[in-house]
Amino acid sequence: MKLPYEYYQQQDVVAIAKDLIGKVLCTYLDNQFTSGIITETEAYAGIQDKASHAYGGKRTKRNEVMYHAGGKAYVYLCYGMHTLFNVVTNTEGIPHAVLIRGIYPLDGIPIILQRRKAKQISPQITLGPGKVTQALGIHLSHNGLDLTQNILWIEDRKIRIPENAINIGKRVGIDYAEEDALLPYRFYVDSKNLSPNCF
DNA sequence: CGTACGATCTGCT
DNA sequence: GCAGATCGTACGA
């Protein structure tokens, strides 16, 4: 049910990014359980990927956890105000990661609404990497957290996403990455497939 | 020590 | 559709 280390430590980060679509991201924080179906991911392929924080082997206090063995959370701040959540993959020393860009709310919807300061549920409310972390209560302090424990984890609930519902595209907001900005490393379920009774 | 800058979201037009 | 918000991090002095 809960994804094990072996899952995260697979070699092909792009394959993991695609496979994570339809898995369930869960948090148990402040005595509250919330979860959502992952609907959008992006792969960041280590030192040769110009869009990656680890490009060229860059290793700092911030991105240190990317170099750890797969199965941990890499949480960092973007644009000074948005917390972004990544899953660290591959083995120790290889800084691969998958950015979770969107989920579909599943458990603890009242809490998600409260955290997002929203009145009504809609797919939009957790679509966007900054919104995902806000909805699930993920904080910068959760950086480096072990994804096989009971605070922050991903489950396989055998939700089947039809192959033709998964779109592939180039990653968002990384124009500076030159030719790597064109890589088809983004996977997302089209919004027209996100109706409440789709899953 | 000072500064520039982002893997973005929101609200207003 | 676009500007503004807002701050940890990296890097140069």
Briefly characterize the structure.
By secondary structure, this protein is an alpha+beta fold. The protein has four helices and eight strands, in the order ααβββββααβββ. The model has no long low-confidence stretch (mean pLDDT 93).
Describe this structure in words.
It is globular and about 45 Å long. The protein has helices at 5-8, 13-19, 109-116, 129-136; strands spanning 24-29, 32-45, 73-78, 82-89, 96-107, 152-155, 166-169, 186-189. The protein is α+β, with helices and mostly antiparallel strands and 199 residues long. The model has no long low-confidence stretch (mean pLDDT 93). The chain has one domain (5-198): 3-methyladenine DNA Glycosylase, Chain A (Roll), CATH 3.10.300.10. Strands 1, 2, 3, 4, 5, 6, 7 and 8 form an 8-stranded antiparallel sheet that branches. The relative contact order is 0.23. The protein contains 4 helices and 8 strands, in the order H-H-E-E-E-E-E-H-H-E-E-E. The protein binds a DNA duplex (13 and 13 nucleotides) through strand 3, strand 4 and helix 4.
Label this structure with key terms.
199 residues, alpha+beta, 3-methyladenine DNA Glycosylase, Chain A, eight-stranded antiparallel beta sheet, DNA-binding
